Amino acid sequence: MKKDLCEQVVVNILALRKLQEKVRFKLMVNTVITPKTVGEADAILDWACDLGIWYSPVPMNCGPEVNDELLSNPEYRALVEKILERKKQGHKILGSKRLIGRLMKGDEIKCFPTLKPHVDPDGSLLWPCKAVANFEPAHINLLNYNSLDEAYHAAAQTIGVDNMHGHGPEQCGADCNWMQNFVSDTYARGIKNPVTSGVLLEIAEFVGAV
């Protein structure tokens, strides 16, 4: 059953790749890498690169952090370097080189979750984010407001987000190793130093423009 399912997924991806000739969309293979699937993730990387399909690598987390067994695995570390090299060669790997390396290695970040809001299908937003560990996030229904700015202003009255990321008594209490956290870190650097931060190059790398 598992083999049949995998074969069907491959067939569907190939069909979607063919459809791109007539319909413009971004086809991407998202691969969650676990200690037991490093070899498979490596093979999928080669397959996606050969076909010109976008590849999005995601390391397995335990809670908010990268799995320790994964980080200590020499095979995984070699795969990370291979992914970065493929990115340098111009293959379609999602993210900038800096972001990919930091995400895959579980590097320390400064997270600014409200710079990249995640809205649920019902129009609700957890403020400042869903992963906050030290207190209950505020539930904001965006459908009750005329604009995102108006909703943000109301949300900021419930929980302040200055110096939110960290393990202090009024901080989030988490170090989430998710792509959106690294993206928010990049956004913040760009806002503070738009010229010298290199954020414009990172954005271009992220979308595959360079």
Provide key terms for this protein.
two-stranded antiparallel sheet, alpha+beta, globular, 210 residues, 8 helices
The amount of beta strand, in percent, is 5-15%
Major sheet strand order:
1-2
Shape field: globular
- Using only CA atoms, what is the Rg? 19 Å
User: If helices are DSSP runs of H or I spanning 4 or more residues, what is the number of helices?
Assistant: 8
Order of helices and strands: HEHEEEHHHEEHHH
Estimate percent helicity: 40-55%
Low-confidence stretches: none
Question: What's the count of strands?
Answer: 6
The major beta sheet can be summarized as: 2 strands, parallel
User: Average pLDDT, to the nearest integer?
Assistant: 89
Please state the structural category.
alpha+beta
* N→C terminal distance: 41 Å
